[in-house]
Specification:
The chain is 28% helix and 27% strand. It has eight helices and 18 strands.
Length: 278
């Protein structure tokens, strides 16, 4: 019953994203790695863009410079000053007080520092710099539009997976995990991706999921109902995290709801009754 309640709360949360300005706390908040697009180009970052509960945070420098602005950091006051044309935004790490063009504005939550990088609320900054911001729930992507903007090439990158990869991976994770837990769903997603990287298996997400060797590797994928199946939010989150490099299961290549007698020495972990092997 507790698992059911947790899943219901998770689904309610993720279907009511409001882009409020959120801070990264010390407790176990739901954090999902996200994609950020500006005028159809993916925004580069050396620290992952993250969705913390209902708010996307990004490294300040990469976002502001991609939008054509400049950014300054004052160590003594922990202040970030961002300028674009006639607009000036100032925010302070750990504070909900901000100024936009000289006018004080109260943030819902404060910006923070992660891995030595200043993480700022994407929507707040982008909209005050004249951008249109929308959220694509199915791919956990922020879509920013600004007319006439040309992003420097060094601030963009080619994502290593497609939306179709995310969608298909989420579908197989849905049926194989049964939404038992995010931990289990993430392990299944990574097992699929590990096969993509292993020369003994097909080198695409689709190829791995639909592979027929001696046996159908993922039998649910060959059922007619799989074609019309829509993935759950928990499975999309797990698949997104896996595609963005979050791995909780190492080099796992196999999983089963019963132990393999022939692979006892290869057991990596047991998660919610599922056995994972390399």
């Amino acid at each position: 019953m507790k698992k059911i309640i947790c899943i219901v709360l998770l689904l309610i949360l993720m279907t009511t994203i409001s882009f409020g300005d959120e801070t990264l706390g010390d407790n176990d908040e739901l954090v999902v790695e996200t994609s950020v697009m500006i005028n159809e180009s993916y925004l580069y970052s050396d620290t992952q863009h993250i969705l913390v509960e209902d708010t996307v945070f990004v490294v300040g420098r990469y976002l502001v410079e991609a939008l054509g602005g400049s950014i300054e950091w004052t160590e003594a006051t922990q202040t970030v000053k961002m300028t674009l044309e006639e607009h000036v935004i100032e925010i302070v790490i750990g504070s909900t007080e901000a100024t936009v063009d000289g006018t004080e504005i109260q943030l819902y939550k404060a910006p923070f520092i992660k891995d030595g990088r200043t993480m700022i609320p994407l929507k707040f900054v982008s909209e005050h710099f004249g951008c249109e911001v929308s959220w694509i729930q199915s791919t956990y992507t922020v879509d920013i539009i600004k007319d006439g903007l040309v992003i420097p090439e060094e601030l963009t990158y080619n994502r290593t997976y497609s939306d179709e990869d995310l969608y298909l991976l989420s579908k197989i994770v849905t049926v194989e995990s049964g939404d038992k837990s995010l931990e289990m769903a993430l392990a299944i997603a990574n097992t699929v991706l590990n096969r993509v990287k292993d020369s003994r298996f097909p080198d695409t997400v689709s190829g791995v999921i639909y592979q027929v060797d001696v046996y159908k590797q993922f039998p649910p994928a060959h059922k007619s109902s799989f074609e019309t199946l829509e993935p759950t939010q928990l499975s999309i989150i797990a698949s997104k995290k896996a595609l963005e490099g979050i791995n909780n299961i190492g080099n796992s290549l196999f999983f089963n709801n019963q132990p393999f007698k022939s692979k006892t020495d290869d057991l990596i972990r047991i998660i919610d009754g599922e056995y994972f092997y390399n």
